[in-house]
């Protein structure tokens, strides 16, 4: 599967559709070249591994009491360091990130995740290395 976004539910965006088409085309091109016997050299790519989901701050009645801080909004995949603002309470108090390492938040303030009690997910940046590959048919 391919998920390209973000975009609101029920909205079709031309730029997002174009990105999806390009990704699918690259995937199909890879399959064709692999099936034709092309050898692909080893490579290393950077990825983000989801570590945990983070909920909105809530009161004892399970009601959300803070919103995503403006400095965090629209900052998916950007570094978040200890002390950086996360949430802003309805009375103006800033709730900062308290962590011992840099994380990379994603799916920040996505409408589809409110019901799942998820303000964002914390990810860590990693590198994956793949060995060379070639179809065994050749």
From TrEMBL:
Pfam families: AstE_AspA_hybrid (PF04952)
Organism the protein comes from: Steatornis caripensis (Oilbird)
Cellular component aspect of the GO annotation: cytosol
Annotated protein name in UniProt: ACY2 Aspartoacylase
Gene Ontology molecular function: any one: hydrolase activity, acting on carbon-nitrogen (but not peptide) bonds, in linear amides
Domain AstE/AspA barrel-sandwich hybrid per the UniProt entry, residue ranges: 44-123
Superkingdom of origin organism: Eukaryota
Coiled-coil spans in chain: none
């Amino acid at each position: 599967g391919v998920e390209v976004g973000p975009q609101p539910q029920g909205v079709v965006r031309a730029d997002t559709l174009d990105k999806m088409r390009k990704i699918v085309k690259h995937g199909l091109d890879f399959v064709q070249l692999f099936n034709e016997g092309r050898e692909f050299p080893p490579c290393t790519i950077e990825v983000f591994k989801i570590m945990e989901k983070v909920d909105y701050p809530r009161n004892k009645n399970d009601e959300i009491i803070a919103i995503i801080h403006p400095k965090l909004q629209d900052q998916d995949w950007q570094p978040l360091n200890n002390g950086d603002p996360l949430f802003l309470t309805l009375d103006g108090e800033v709730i900062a990130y308290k962590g011992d390492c840099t994380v990379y938040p994603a799916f920040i303030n996505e409408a589809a995740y409110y019901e799942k009690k998820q303000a964002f997910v914390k990810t860590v940046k990693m590198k994956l290395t793949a060995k060379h590959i070639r179809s065994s048919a050749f």
